[in-house]
Amino acid sequence: MASIISGYSVVTLSNILLVLLSCCAAKAQLSPNFYANSCPNLQTLVRNAMTQAVNTETRIGASILRLFFHDCFVNGCDASILLDDTSTFTGEKNAAPNRNSARGFEVIDTIKTRVEAACNSTVSCADILALAARDGVVLLGGPSWQVPLGRRDARTASQSAANNQIPSPFANLAALTSSFASKGLSTRDLTALSGGHTIGLARCTTFRGRIYNDTNIDPNFAATRRANCPASGGDNNLAPLDIQTPTRFDNNYFRNLVAQRGLLHSDQELFNGGSQDSLVRTYSTNPATFSSDFAAAMVRMGNISPLTGTSGEIRRNCRVVN
């Protein structure tokens, strides 16, 4: 009897370990050292290219960060957002959240060309985008973090998923919370990652409703934004997401929210008498806490459903499948 029980225990423990290992396999295959031997100069190549790009146009740091966010929220961080439409293939670039606003593709092309020259058919476009997003933040004064690597590139894309899964600038807190939770991200991750809006610009069409209809907005701020965003027309006119330091990655975004100067409706939802008010106040007065939480949340977002092992492919050109 004892031997049977003992044997049963061993089998059960083995089964449990197998389940645990299979559940964690995808994330376990991502490692900051994934290319240490196969492409040792990868991070230097990406950083140098991003430095040149940001020096040419400061805004590009925010654009690349947004590309990574929009990539990860649609079926995982698999570089599907980089695929061009063709006569026989519909990608994600013309989905509503990306059309006329997703940008930075040429920078990724440049990095990919340099990486291919150094390490042929080795580094995925998904990993290049993850590294470029980190470097753009750092170059604008934000925190750094180790980027887990080893993602592979999708052979497919989904315009419908991009239309439905990328959080809307018009969303309320409940919808934002649900959207992030569906990706395994917490409300703290939601608020920290929203702090990425400390850099970059938004189009009038995304904040017109906020500056003309919302009541939880500083009237002087609303008047300032209306000057360049008429009630009709001017959809593509731009305004900084952070009115104070739009080209520096800092915690002023949260100070703006406390002062009711969030540009997007979804921004101000984080500070509107709800569950995130306390955290927004913390970030507004403690930049170190925000930086730490943002870096950790970026790693978690980068772990959303990666393709690893033999899944997907290593694209030679980020715009087309091999």
Topology:
Layout: H1 2-28, H2 42-56, H3 60-72, H4 105-118, H5 125-139, H6 159-165, H7 173-181, H8 187-194, E1 201-203, H9 204-213, H10 219-226, E2 238-240, H11 252-258, H12 265-268, H13 277-285, H14 287-302
Antiparallel strand pairs: 1-2
Task: Describe the fold and architecture.
- This protein is mainly alpha-helical.
- It contains 14 helices and two strands, in the order ααααααααβααβαααα.
- It has helices spanning 2-28, 42-56, 60-72, 105-118, 125-139, 159-165, 173-181, 187-194, 204-213, 219-226, 252-258, 265-268, 277-285, 287-302; strands at 201-203, 238-240.
- The protein has a two-stranded antiparallel ribbon with strand order 1-2.
- Helix 2 (42-56) packs across helix 5 and helix 8 (187-194) crosses helix 14.
- It is globular.
- The model is unreliable at 1-27 (pLDDT under 50).
Unreliable segments of 5+ consecutive residues? 1-27
Proportion of strand residues: under 5%
Instruction: Give the H and E element order.
Output: HHHHHHHHEHHEHHHH
Q: Estimate the mean pLDDT confidence.
A: 93
Residue share in helices?
Answer: 40-55%
- Biggest sheet, open or closed, and with what strands and sense? 2 strands, antiparallel
Specify the number of helices.
14
Coarse structural class: mainly alpha
Care to count the β-strands? 2
In short:
The protein contains 14 helices and two strands; from the N terminus they run H-H-H-H-H-H-H-H-E-H-H-E-H-H-H-H. It has helices at 2-28, 42-56, 60-72, 105-118, 125-139, 159-165, 173-181, 187-194, 204-213, 219-226, 252-258, 265-268, 277-285, 287-302, and strands at residues 201-203, 238-240.
